[in-house]
Specification:
A two-stranded antiparallel ribbon has the order 1-2. It is mainly α and 412 residues long. It contains 17 helices and two strands. It is elongated and about 105 Å long. The N and C termini lie far apart (116 Å). It folds into two domains: 171 residues, no CATH class; 183 residues, Alpha Horseshoe (Serine Threonine Protein Phosphatase 5, Tetratricopeptide repeat). A hairpin with a 5-residue loop joins strand 1 and strand 2.
């Protein structure tokens, strides 16, 4: 026998072996599963029929009693009844389970293989595995059978609901028919799934490229907006807000940091009388960030906007007070600790809007809880909080007990 014919026989034998393995492996898996179930039932029955003596039972309990769960163990040490109940509930809801029972896998594979064979002989031709050239082998019908098995499984994964053969013949035929159709269209099903995944991946890449392009343009506008060079033309507020609205979350964080840094630097320059007041530049940025926060979960956008509104040249104390109140509500709703600077600054706003003394005092009382804001209240600055100093002097007699109790030092 020539080496070429010997090679062809080897291919044929391997191909037949692959088909047999595909057919037999699900049966073995199901058989082992049934054996396991039988052993469990046998053990349970043996315990009922032949109970151990008390001493042996005690030793067995000590050996198999689990240790109490530690904090690091999390939910790994669940009550068996609770765990089994949860698994049963998950199975009822279809959570984390296959859309067919494991014992029906052999039927799916067999039907899928037959569907693959039907597809292979659709043109009344059955290609037997053979050597196409010296280094190329043509798997022929084996390929169609493998695609048939894959298609038989895939079709159950993409169809809605659970398809399980009941005891009646009609439902069993329907089950076999679905697997047969999946096997016949195995190539198309597998190619469709792969094509859709590739398309989704390509769409994600295209979206990422488009977003990177938008972010690059948005970052350029933000940097231009906060440029200290007086010759740099101003960026229209509508253009800036539109760029931030279309930006990714990472660029919005960048915009927040840039605006916050610019505001603090501008405030220091104002207090030192180094140049004009440019704090109003950050207002459109924080307004845009607030518009992007549709669920209203970020309190710092409102807080920073309030600081800018009260410190800009044309201060808007009423609007600043309103934004500080919103920031405090979001902070408290999200159970975020600290940020007593909101109460301190709202007290300053209340002083400027001539609110009731008790409301101002209440905000200052909360501000005393913070290590930094507490010092601001106890040692108010003529430079940073001149309105607070003046308010304390004006109400010295009415607040003398509170001032003494809190150790507040009013500069003269």
């Amino acid at each position: 026998m020539s080496s070429s014919k010997l090679g062809d026989w080897k291919i044929t034998v391997v191909s037949i072996a692959i088909l047999v393995m595909i057919l037999v492996s699900p049966v073995i898996a199901v058989t082992m599963d049934n054996i396991g179930d039988t052993e469990v039932k046998s053990d349970a029955q043996a315990k009922v029929n032949h109970p151990q003596d008390p001493l042996a039972e005690t030793i067995n309990l000590e050996r198999h009693t689990p240790k109490p769960p530690s904090k690091d163990d999390g939910n790994r040490h669940q009550n068996p009844k609770e765990k089994n109940g949860k698994d049963d509930q998950d199975e009822k809801n279809g959570a984390n389970v296959l859309p067919f029972q494991k014992k029906h896998l052999w039927l799916i594979c067999l039907s899928g293989m037959f569907g693959g064979l039907l597809f292979a002989i659709r043109d009344k031709k059955l290609v037997i595995p053979h050597r196409k050239s010296k280094n190329i082998y043509e798997p022929g019908v084996v390929t169609d059978v493998l695609f048939g098995v894959a298609g038989g499984v895939v079709i159950f994964l993409i169809l809605p609901g659970n398809i399980t053969p009941e005891k009646d013949t009609i439902s069993l035929l329907k089950f076999i028919g679905v697997a047969l159709i999946g096997g016949y269209g195995g190539r198309a099903l597998v190619e469709k799934v792969l094509t859709q995944q590739i398309k989704d991946l390509q769409d994600s890449v295209d979206d990422l490229k488009a977003q990177n392009k938008e972010d690059a343009a948005g970052m350029a506008l933000i940097n231009k907006h906060f440029d200290d060079d007086p010759d740099t033309p101003a960026v229209p507020h509508d253009t800036l807000k539109a760029a931030i609205a279309k930006a990714s979350h990472s660029l919005q964080v960048y915009a927040f940091d840039q605006a916050r840094t610019f505001r603090r630097k501008a405030l220091r320059n104002v207090r030192k009388k180094h140049g004009p007041n440019h704090i109003d530049r950050v207002v459109p940025v924080f307004l845009a960030l607030i518009d992007c926060d549709e669920k209203n979960v970020y309190h710092r956008n409102h807080g920073q906007l309030a600081f800018a509104l009260k410190d800009q040249e044309a201060a808007d104390w009423a609007k600043a007070k309103e934004e500080l109140t919103i920031a405090m509500e979001i902070r408290d709703r999200n159970k975020v600790g600290g940020f007593y600077v909101y109460e301190f600054n709202r007290a300053l706003c209340r002083i400027k809007t001539v609110d009731k003394l008790e409301e101002i005092k209440k905000d200052l009382e909360v501000a005393l809880s913070g290590p930094k804001t507490g010092d601001w209240v106890k040692k108010p600055s003529q430079v940073c909080a001149p309105d607070l100093v003046e308010w304390l002097k004006t109400n010295r007699e009415r607040l003398k007990d509170w001032i003494k109790e809190r150790g507040i030092q009013i500069p003269e």
